[in-house]
Amino acid sequence: MKRAALVVSAAVSAALVAPTANAAEPVRFATFNASLNRAAEGELLADLSTPDDEQARKVAEVVQRTRPDVLLLNEFDYVEGNAAVDAFRTNYLARGQRGADPIDYPYAYTAPVNTGVPSGMDLDKDGTIGGPGDAHGFGVFPGQYGMVVLSKYPIGQARTFQQFRWADMPGARLPDDPATPEPADWFTPEELAQVRLSSKSHWDLPIDVGGRTVHFLTSHPTPPAFDGPEKRNVLRNQDEIRFWADYVTPKRGDYIYDDEGERGGLRPGARFVVAGDQNSDPLDGDSNGIRQLLQAPRVIDPRPGSVGAIEASLAQGGANGSHRGSPYFDTGDFNDEKPGNLRIDYVLPSAPLIPLRSGVFWPTSEEELSRLNDASDHHLVWVDLRV
What we know:
Elements: H1 2-16, E1 27-36, H2 43-48, H3 54-66, E2 70-76, H4 83-93, E3 107-109, E4 147-151, E5 159-160, H5 189-192, E6 203-209, E7 212-218, H6 232-247, E8 271-277, H7 290-294, H8 307-316, E9 345-349, E10 354-360, E11 381-386
Parallel strand pairs: 1-2, 7-8
Antiparallel strand pairs: 1-11, 2-4, 3-4, 5-6, 6-7, 8-9, 10-11
């Protein structure tokens, strides 16, 4: 274990020496499910309105220690008008946390998501209309579990796909009611005309990196759990991931339309980085839908990892002992009995972007920064790219 501690020290040190916002230098892209979600609308903004929220301080310190240039935060409750984002930047990121240097993100993007938005339909088939299970994405209020992108580089005109209908995806994996002989009939035809694919949203954000555009493709598919024999969440997770695989593959994304009605996928040859908590491990857990994206043309998997994840897997045991995948690549620290720790957070660049270094911020217990491991049940994933 002493040797492992030395290895992770080098990894953490590498993360602390971050590239600067200069197109000639490597650019650090990152994703972090920060668990900055709250149980009621308005609670996150209240927590961030002062610099004293302990969890937010830890999240900010993780960001300050790793210093991404372009960062996706998952599970950051959406507040109209950027008020929560601005409060986090001002009260937390702009203040050095426990000796870390402040960090400035002059550009930010957030937008409405499907979580908590009432559908007016009984989508979970519990006999009543209303509640988190009947929202367009599971949530108790609109915007819960939202997303934020912070950037040192200008963000161009976004394409959003919040309202794209699941049934409009060719060959969609629609859930089936096991009590009837008809296939794929969990939702009625009337419901299918309204059911959305994205549980939060899918965003295509063009980032101007020194005159070169990198499309930051961000999302947060539903967990492949908390459903029944119809497996509607498992299937939705797979198709939410497939969306990006189709979007970046020439001609396969022709069916896609955005919230403004513009059709088609990404322009062939465009540079992109797919990022987010995909809730899918390629080998373990309840959904392996991420394989669709890992196998898509031009997608590069830098396979970031950490020694801290190995230590956690060995110490926690349980389901971790039967996993097929190496714990080195885990990004989430979950229930030991099921599903165990998993790799579910990704930063996946495209050719011709060149990955130089990558890592998962998960210090071992011997490291002083291990005090940040409980900031979230996920760990920040970063990749340095030559653009």
